[in-house]
Amino acid sequence: MEKPVSLSKTDGIALVTLNRPKAYNAFDLDMVRLAADTLIELALDPGVTGVVISGEGKAFCAGGDLRWISGCGENYGAAFHELAARYHQAILEIRRMPKPVVAAINGFAAGGGFSLALACDFRVMEASASLKQAYTSNGLSIDGGGTYALPRLVGTAKALEIAAFDEPINAEKALSWGMVTEVVGDGDGMNRALEMIRQINKGSLSSFAASKKLITDSLNTPFETQLENERDLLSWAADQPDGREGIAAFLEKRKPVFGNL
C-alpha cells in the first residue's frame, strides 16, 4: 500500500508529494501525521538544502477530507480539533524550517491545501491551476495559518473578500494579487520550483535561514524587539562559514564561494 505522503530527493532537494490522488490529496489524520513527521525529518537533515511540496495527480491538495471527518461519529468538532493539531504542526515546521520551501501548485489547492500553499516561502503555480479558500462555502472557518498569511499577502480588505465570497482564483489573478511568486506552463511547476531552490542554494543558506526567521517573526514582534533579533542574528551569521567567506570576498574584490552545508 502506497504511503499518503511520498518522499524523494534530488541534488539535496527533498520532493514531498501529497499522495492520495483519488481523494484529490485531501488529508486525513494519517496523512497529516506523516506530513508533519516528514517535514520534521527534513528540517533536521543536514543533507537537505530545500523542500518542494506538490500533489500527485490532478490536484495540489483539496484540504481536509470531509468524508474522513463524517466517519468519525457525530462530534465533528473533536475530529477537526485533532486533525488541525497535526496539520498545524506541519505548517509550523514549514515556517520554522531554516531552508527554502516551495509549493509547486500543479492543480487546484482548496481549503487546507490553500492554506498549505500560502504557508510556503514561495509558490509556483501552473497556468491551469486554481486556488479556493473553500472553508466558508462549507460553513467552516479558515485554519492552517490562512488567516495569518492571506491578509499579509493581499491586504485585509481583499482577504475578507476572499473569505466572504469564496470565488475560485485562477493563476492570473493569484499572480496579480501577490498570492503566488510565479506562474508557469502546465507540467512545468516542479522543474521551476527545483530551479528556484537551486538558485537560492548558490547563495548562502545560513543567510537565507536568518532572513526567513527575521521576516517571519517581524509580523508579530514589537519594533525594539525586532531590532535586538536582527542584531543577534547578524552576529550569528557573521560567525558562520558563509559569513566569513562573504566578508573575505568583499574585501578581496572577488565573488564569494558559499558552502551552505
From TrEMBL:
Gene Ontology molecular function, alphabetical: lyase activity
Superkingdom field: Bacteria
One Gene Ontology biological process: fatty acid beta-oxidation
Record key words, sorted: Lyase
One Pfam family matching this protein: ECH_1
PANTHER family listed in its UniProt record: 1,2-EPOXYPHENYLACETYL-COA ISOMERASE, ENOYL-COA HYDRATASE-RELATED
Similarity comment: family membership: Belongs to the enoyl-CoA hydratase/isomerase family.
Full protein name: Enoyl-CoA hydratase/isomerase family protein
